[in-house]
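Now for our specimen.

. . .
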Amino acid sequence: MYSYFIDALWLSIAFLSGLAAKRLQLPPLIGYLVTGIVLNSMGLTNGNIHQVLTVLGDMGIMMLLFTIGLKIKFKSILKKEVLLTASAHMIISVLAIGGFVFALSFGGIRFFTGLSLSSSMLIGFALSFSSTVFAAKILEERGELSSFHGKIAIGILIIQDIFAVVFLAFSSNEAPGLLALTLPVYLYLIRFVLFRILDQSGHGELLTAFGFFAAFVAGAFAFKLAGVKADMGALVIGMLLVPHKKSDELYDRMMNYKDFFLIAFFVGIGLTGVPSWQTVTTILILLPFMFLKGGLFMLLFARFNLRARTAFLTSLSLTNFSEFGLITAIVGLKLELITAEWLLVIALLMSVSFLVASPLNTNVHKIFDRFKHIIMTINSGKNYIDEDPSTLGDANYLVIGMGSIGRPAYDHLNRLYPSKVLGIDYNHENVEALRKQGYNVMWGDATNSVFWAYCNLSQINLVLLAMSDFNSNNNTLTEIIKLKQRKFKIAAITHYPDEVEPFTKRSVDYIYDYKSNIGADFAEQTIYGLEKQMDEALANKVKKV
């Protein structure tokens, strides 16, 4: 009975704290961190609750990496702006933070005194990582996980994960054995097996079961047997499934399960412990490095011809400390390079970095607009790989977001107004694929104020906000309504009733409520289709006569 009470307690506090954070316009994960702190203050740090949160949290990380993998292609992480930036950032961060910590070892400050060069560099390595969980969650809440800067951020994090795997392999007593050499062959074979099973999984509960099987068994368990990090297995299996036609459906199905498990992860972080004054002092000394890491990312991105805005948005999502830092610290403890006190320091440092970075990331677009004149000074003036279009050609109709909603909308408008429709999407791969199919589509980030400020919009009659995510449409609308002279109409799609009111207040000309209108559209298209069939049949009869 006690365990049921404890489970009910932490779930209730987590829900109420997350709700309170949302009402304060903060990410719910802040509420989950507070939940752990509250439970810690109540003395509930041991026993069943800790075991439950650890298990659920581990499952959350693996499910997160699996769903991320479903949106990432291998070639996207091999681009120089991802691979070289991640590598250079890791090297510079380790040397800078490790060198600073080693210098403090001679200053007589508690925790730092007596640290060797190896110990200092281990701490630098632990603090050089950015949090995959935090960045993915923030990008998802902003509707930018599939954006250009979102994919770069995830690519950076994947490269960092690979560094972590290599470190664990060489530092752990459980280094990968001979079985690890068979993983390439295993992945080649399991891909065909999983594709075949996924074809037969339908669209119901069996698809959900397949998702758990792929992530935890085919991925995490198999990699663990080979002596490789289980989390990496879940990520790689997700990436293997990207080409399958049902990968997007599988992604949507598994997202809700992932969200629940991650609640336990963030609660577990907040449950870490109560800091002493010396711990707080150490955290305050090291916390500024999260901003130095973010600044370094911006400078490196600028070197690879990313626009200032892309560099800023990507860097801010990476401006934090990571759960991998805690894993690295645990290894350091086993190797007797650091004391147990450093585990608490790094865990709390990660928690504080989440608390500081969350409101900054929530308001990232406002921050960029406010300090745009300063941030854009890092632009190199060269040809950017993420350059927004400067002209929209002869288009009279813009479709923003060329996904499952935008493509049919584009097709319908193009039948009515041939050669007068232009699609805009911030997914380079999607743009490239659509161009091959004959679509008039350009790459562009419609949430960017620069996009609307520098494009000639005088010929545009209608803009359709057709992205499936409400936040993405709303962010785009925020930039549109800043235009002083706007002649075109705006139409937006919503999926839930509470999404209608924000658009109504912001003077959207037409709001398509998906769930309310889908039935009417079904009937309308049915009548249209049947009449078209009758007309074609009549025309065939006339031809025969």
